Amino acid sequence: MSTAGRRFDGRVCLVTGSTGIAAAAARALAQEGANVFVTSRTADHAAALASEIGARWQAAELTQEESVESVVEGVVGAFGRLDCVYNVAGISGRRLGDGPAHEMTLDGWNQTIANNATSQFLVCRAAVRQMLAQAPAANGQRGAILNMSSSLARHPERRYFATHAYAASKGAIESFSRAAAAYYAPHGIRVNVIAPALVATPMSERAQGDPQIMAYVARRQPLAAGALQPADLVGAALFLLSDDARMITGQVLDVDGGWSVADGLEEGSQG
Predict the structure, then answer these.
(1) Cα 41 from chain centre
(2) How many structural domains comprise the chain?
């Protein structure tokens, strides 16, 4: 088999999450030669994805320190090191009480922050500890981390996506990632962020089932004329994790179909 285009041959990549965006990336990483390790709260999903692509897997509650540390120990036990992390797993929070600030419950805030920002911090902490302890790879660096944000962190939408804890959790991820990128660059560890808009995943089923919301999304994401597909994020994600981006760190890349530059107004309306 030709190795052309196999940017991840011999690399060990941890992917958090096992459906939607995470699954699409895990498949692509495996196709490009990576040793993939999948972790997810849902064991059945993680096991099915791992079986499909020939990966290792472990069920884990990523808001818990011991659980996250166990995952990284599992990665190193299986492959000897950790080169890449794609931090995808997270939640919407709406069903838990997230919403506009004046309507939000404290539990909705706490659970959304925990499942999005805290979980990514814990994964990053465990991964960085391992990367600092291991010798640099052939590229002279110790590892690459890609965290998951959202367009809503910097480009909010008040009518259909007024989930303020979710936006705050994603904003926290971006700030944390920039700070970590600055600190760990001298150690050969890169930290970047990808920020998609609405993607057709299980988490966005509410929006996908509402014709009014989807008509708005089609205008707000004109390149996609609707929801993005998980595969639409793969190219950007693998680029940022690969040596193609070895001089890039501390960046937030919008992959949003135009969300950040389109206003979503009705066609023909005047600004």
Answers:
(1) 15
(2) 1
Q: CA-CA distance, 166 to 138, in Å (whole number)? A: 38
The reported pLDDT for the residue numbered 264 is 62
The range of the structural domain enclosing residue 182 comes to: 12-199+229-255
Q: Is residue 208 situated within a structural domain? A: no
Query: Of 86, 166, 184, 216, which one is the catalytic site residue?
Result: 166
pTM: 0.94
> What DSSP state is assigned to residue 13?
E
CB burial string 201-211: b at 16+ within 10 A, e below: bebbeebbeee
* pLDDT digits 0-9 by tens, 195-218: 999 999 888 788 788 899 999 999
Looking at the domain assignment, is residue 69 inside a domain? Answer: yes
Nearest CA to 16 out of 98, 113, 118, 108 is that of: 118
DSSP 96: G
Domain holding 38: CATH number? 3.40.50.720
Asked if 184 is an active-site residue, the reply is no
User: What's the token pair of residue 208?
Assistant: 């996908």
